[in-house]
Design brief:
about 150 residues; single chain; Pnp Oxidase, Chain A; eight-stranded antiparallel sheet; alpha+beta
């Protein structure tokens, strides 16, 4: 099997095509990896989460890493790694972007399932904060793929 580096454009094309990623964050040098559904717009990935360990860790250490794969077979795959920075979409200044994230994510069927509760389309106006929308600003992108 011959493995090659992917061009930046090919990495971004894969990121835009997929919707499921592994998100890695770390607290006190202890890594934590979880699957997340995402949507891509420009140099940002959008996702949401319920309160919990992942959100606590990213608030304390906003430096994260994302892995996105496309697996056709054992000998035919692509994998992209993104170093990113967590940005919580909260407050009035993030209201429009939170709605944008919601509309991008809602293009995928059952996009809320990892979060267990479907957020309301009027989420930005809700007082109790159960769901947290966030962005991941892409800092560095690289990828590898098997040669065809």
């Amino acid at each position: 099997m011959n493995i090659q580096e992917m061009a930046y454009e090919d990495c971004i094309a894969l990121v835009k095509k997929q919707w499921l990623a592994r998100l890695a964050c770390a607290n006190a040098n202890i890594p934590y990896v979880v699957p997340v559904q995402y949507a891509c717009a420009g140099d940002r990935l959008y996702a949401f989460t319920l309160p919990g360990k992942k959100l606590d860790i990213m608030r304390a250490n906003p430096n994260v890493c994302v892995q996105i794969d496309q697996l056709k077979s054992k000998h035919s795959w692509k994998s992209v790694i993104i170093d990113a920075r967590f940005v919580e979409l909260d407050g009035d200044e993030s209201r429009e972007e939170k709605h944008r994230a919601w509309s991008l994510l809602a293009q995928h069927l059952d996009w809320w399932e990892p979060g267990a509760l479907k957020p309301s389309s009027r989420l930005a106006d809700a007082t109790p904060k159960t769901h947290t929308f966030f962005a991941l600003d892409m800092i560095d992108v690289s990828g590898r793929a098997t040669a065809s």
